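Table S2 (text version). Query chain:
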Amino acid sequence: MKNSRVRGFRGSRSLQDTAIECILNNISDVTFEGMQCLPDQMVRRIWHAVNKRCLLSFNTWMIFSKLLCRGEGASLGLLRYRQNFQKPTSPLIVYTVPITSQSFEFITSLSITTTFSVPDLVKLSHITNLGVLEVISNDGVRGGNEKVSLPVSDRLVRAWAIAASDEGAFKVLRILKLWYHEDLTSKSLAYLNDFPALALYDVRGCTFDLEAKTHAKSLGWKATTEANVLDLLEAACVERAVLMQTSLGVETKPVRKQSARQLWEGSKIRRIARSEVPLFLTRPETAIPGEPLMEHESFSRIQASLDKLESHHADKSIKDNRWKIMDRHVFSKSRAAETWEFNTYTCFARIGELRNDSDLARAGVDVGDQVLVGNELVNSVPMVSIRLGETPSVLQPSSASSAHKPFYSSMYEDSAVSSLKYDRERASSSTRTLSFIRIKVPPTQQRSEPSSSQPSSDKPEEYTKKSAPSGKLQKKGPPMRQGSIMKNKRRKIEEVWNSLR
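Corresponding C-alpha cell output:
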C-alpha cells in the first residue's frame, strides 16, 4: 500500500492516515465534540479530504465551520453552504428546523420555488436567523393546464410584519424577494417598516399600482425599476468609498471596481478590524475581487501558440480570431462558475458593506472583524443557502444580467461566449420589474412609522452626509441612446444614495 503522506513511499499507512481514513468512512457519525479535541492541523486535513471526496453534508459543514472559519488559512467554503432540494416531499418545517439558529451561528438564505400552504409560510417567522427570503412563483404546469402558484398575498406579508413587531421575528432579514404573485399589491408597503433590518423589497411581476412609488417614498423607501439591483448596490458602495476619501482627508481620486463575480470557494480569507475598513476602501490600489484562477504562464503559453500558428499559416485569419480565443479563455478560466445563490448573497454582502453590519450587531449577531477575499468585502457571518424547488428560468444565472449596455462592446459580436457581449433580449425579458430600497437602518422604537425625514443614529451613515441631489424615477420606454441610458442609471444610483440619508 502506498503511503498517502509521502509520495513514492511504499509501506503501511501511518497511524494518523489510518485514523483519518476511518473518520472519513464514518463522517456522518462525527460530532462537534469529537472533532474539537483533535489538533487543528488534523482537522484541516479532514476538511480538505471531505471536500475532495464530496462527502460534505450540512451537519458536517457546520462542524468544520465552527472549528476552522476563524482560524488561520481558512477558506471561503467555510463561510458558505448551499443545497437545492429540487423536489421536496416533506412538510416545510422539516427543512426549516435544521437551518434555524437561535444564537446566530450562521445566517439563513431561503429560496422557495414550489408550493407550500399559507400556515407553513406564516411559520417562516420562527427562523430567527433568516437573512434572505425568496418566494418565486414558477408559473409552471402540473398535470395538464393547472398552474402552479404560491399563496403569497398582502395578508401573508401582514402576518410576517405582526410577527416582526410583536414577537421580535425577522431580526436580520435584509432581502425579501417575492416574484410573480398576483395577490401581492401596493397595500403590502404599509408593513415594510415593521421589519427592523429590511433593505430590499423586490416585487417583480406583482400587482402594484402607479401610486406605489409615492407611497413608498412617504415611508422612507426608494422605488426603482432597475432589473439588476446588485449593480445599484455596488455603485452605491463605490460612491461611499469616494465620500470616505473626503471624510478621511485623503486626496479624492476615482475609485475603480470590477463588477461582482463568483468567488472560488477555495479562496483564502483574511480579516481586518472594522475600524480599518474605511482606510482599506480608500486605498489607491485598484479593487479586483477574488483570486485569479488562471496563471500568467497559461496566458503566455496560449499567446505563444497563437504566434506560432500564425507564422505557419499566414493565409488563415489567426489574427482576426486571436481576441475571440483569448477572451473565451479568460472568461472561462479566470472566474468560477456562477451558482444559483450568487445574486442574493452578494446583495446581502453589499448591504452589509453600506451598513457596516450595524443591523446584524443590533440584533445580537457576533459580526467580528470584516472578512476579505482578495480585495472584496464578503459576509463575516457564515451563510447557509437552501432552495426548495427547481430553479425557474427567470432565476438562471447570467453573466449579462444588467439592463444597461456598458461603455464598450465586444469586437466580435458574433461570439456567444464573449464576456463583454450584451444580451438585450434577456435583460428586457421582464417588463414589470419593481423594487424598493432602504439602506438606512431605522430606529428600533419607530420602525412602524414613516422614516423619510427621520435622522439615523447608525454609524455607517457618517460617510453619507454629502450625497447627490434627489431625482425622479421614470418609466422604462423604448431603447434609448447610450448617453441617455447612463444618465438614467446615474439618476437611479443617486436615489439609492438618498435612501442612506
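Notes on Table S2: The first strand starts at residue 80 and ends at 85. The CA atoms of residues 223 and 436 lie 4 Å apart.
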